[in-house]
Amino acid sequence: MSDQERNEATPPQPSDRKSPIKGTGGPQAAAKPGRGPLGFLILAGLILMVFLLFQSLNSNNGQEVAWAEFESAYADGTIQIVELQSGAVVGRPADTNASSPGTIYRVTFNQAAIDTWTEKVDVLTSGQFVDKSGPSGWQQALAFAPFIFTILIFVVIWIFIMRAMRGAGGGGGMLGNFGKSRHRVLMKESTGITFKDVAGVEEAKDEVEEIARFLKDPKRFMRLGGRIPRGVLLTGPPGCGKTLLAKAIAGEADVPFFSISGSDFVEMFVGVGASRVRDLFKQARENSPCIIFLDEIDAVGRRRGGGYSSGGGHDEREQTLNAILVEMDGFESTEQIIVIASTNRPDVLDPALTRPGRFDRQIGVQLPDVKGRYEILKVHAKKVKLAADVDLQMIARGTPMFSGAELEAIINEAAIIATLADKDAVEHEDLEEARDKVRFGRANKSRVREAEDNKLTAYHEAGHTALQWLLEDADPLHKVTIIPRGQSGGATFSLPERDRQTISRKWLIATARVLCGGRIAEEKAMGDVSSGASMDIQQVTGIARSMVLEWGMSEALGFVRYEQDDDRPVIDREYSDETARVIDAEVKRIVDEAYQHATRLIDENWDKVQAIAEALLQYETLTAKEVERLMKGERLGKPSVSDLLNAEAEKVRSQDQSTTMPDPKPEADEGEAGFGGAMPSPA
Predict the structure, then answer these.
(1) Is the distance from CB of 654 to CB of 676 less than 8 angstroms?
(2) Which member of 461, 523, 586, 626 is catalytic?
(3) Is 406 noted as a catalytic residue in this protein?
(4) The pTM is what?
(5) pLDDT tens for residues 650-671?
C-alpha cells in the first residue's frame, strides 16, 4: 500500500499539536451574530415609517364633501364641532365617541390658502371653531422625511463599506487588507512536488538540494562557523522550471512555503507595497524555518534611478524595493529563513538586491540539452500510456530550444490527439504532431487553396528541402509538408544532431542559404515572387545583423560589438554614421552572397527540386527517407492522397450498398438440408 493510500485509509487521530503556521490564528468558535448599530438603525427607520403611515391614514379619515354641503350640514345641526386642520376643515357631531363616531365631514384645501379658509370658518361658526392648522410633531417629521431617509441611506452605505474593509483586512482599519501581504502558504502536502519531479536541470537541482539539507539540519552547516544563505536568485528563460525548483525545495525540506508575486506588492496607494513586505517577513519570522518565494521579482526589484520617476521623486516600487532590502539585511544568524526569487531579466535588477548578503547565490536555470529533454519527457510520460513504437529519444533530438513547459505540453497534446482518434495508447506519430502543434500551431487541413497556390507552396518548400539536403553544414532534414500550419502555408523541419552551445559561422551561412531557397525556387517555377517568403527574409536578415553587430563575423568591422542594449534608446547609439553605413553594407553583402550561392545550387539541381515539388503536390508530406529517394532519382511507389481519398470513398459507397440491398436467401440443393435465412459468405 502506498503512503497516500495508507494515509487515506487511516482515520485522523486527535492531537494537541498546534498548527505549524503561527501568527495566522487557529480556528475559533463562531461568534453569535448580533444586531449591531446597523440593525438598530434599520429598525428605527421601519418604526418611523409605520408611525408616519398611521398618521397619514388618521389625517385622511372622514367623508369628503364640498364647502356648500359642509355649510348646509352645519346650518341644520348635523355638524356641531368644527376643526380647522392643516389642509382640511373637519366637522363632526357633538356626541362623537369611539363606539359611535357618527358622520364626519371633511373639506380639503391647499395649505397656501390657509388665511382664506380661516376667514370662511370664522364667519361660518362665528368664531366657535377649534384651530389645529399648525403642523403637529408627526407632520413636522413627515416634512423632514426625505432628508432623514437620504442621510439614512448614506449611513447604511458607509457602514457596509467600513464593515467589508475591516472584515477583509482582519480589523486593519480604514485601509483594510491593503497593507496585508497577499502571499499563499503552502506545505509539503499541498505542493506535492519533490526533487524526483524535477529533471533536465541537474546542476541547478544540485545547488538547491543544499538549501533543503540546510533547512533540515542547520546545525551541521553552522558547525564550522558558516552562515546560512539568505537568498537564492533563480534566473533563466520562461518555462525552464524556476517555480518548480522552489516548490521542490519546500517539498523536500517540509517547511512552510510563502509564495507571492512581485506584482502583488504594487498598489495605487503609496506605501502599501512596503507595508506588505514588512507583514510578509513578520509572518515568516513567526514561522521559521520557512521559505519565502518571490516570483517575478523584477516587477519591484528593477534598478533604481533608471526611469521609475523622472524627477527623482517618490515612487511606490522604489519604496517597496527599499523595504525588501532592509528586511533581507535584517535577518539574524539564528533565523532560518531563506528567500528564493525568480526572474527572466536578471540584468535589470538593482545591484543592492543581488549583492552577497542578500541574494548569496544566483542559479541559472537554462534550457535543457538533449539529455535533459529526454529526462523531462520521461517524467511527464509516466502520466500517459505510450505505445511500443514511441521513441522519446528521437522526440528529444527533434525539440532543440524547447523548455520544460513546452515538453510537458507535447506529452499532454499527444494524449489529447490520441484520445480524439480513439486510440488505446499514444503513438509516435501523435508525439510528432503534438510537437509541431506546440511550436508551429495546429495543422489547417480543412483550408481550401487554389491549385496555383498549392503549386507555389510546393516549389517554395521544395527549394528549402533541396538546399537542406545538399548543404553539409545545415541541419539534417526531418520532413517537409505543404499542409498549412499556424500562419505558414507549409514547413520544412530539420532534426539537429546535437545541441549547439556556440553557433559557428559555417552553420549560419548554410542556414541563410536554406532560407533563400524558397523564394528562388518559387520565382523560377512561377515566374513571379510572393509575400510567402516574408518570414524567411526576416530570419536571414536577423542572422546577418547578429553576425555583424554581435558576433564580430564581418571582416570590414572586425572584432567589435555594435549591438545596443534593449533598455537604451535607439537614437543613443555608440557608433558614427559612417560605421552605420558600413554595418548596412555588410548585412546586405552577407544576404546577397547567400542568395547568389543558393541560386546557383538550385539551378544545378532543378530537376531534383521539381521532383520534390511534384511529390509534395501528390503526397502533401514527405519524410527524410522519401526525400533521399527523390534526390537519387527514384520514384515513390506509395498511394497518393487522392488515391487514399478515392479508396475511402469507394469503401463507404460499398458499405452503403450492402446495407440497402435485400438479403438473398440461398436455395438448398437437392439432397442437402437447406439453411433458411442464412447469410452468404462474404467472399
Answers:
(1) no
(2) 461
(3) no
(4) 0.61
(5) 655 666 555 555 444 444 443 3
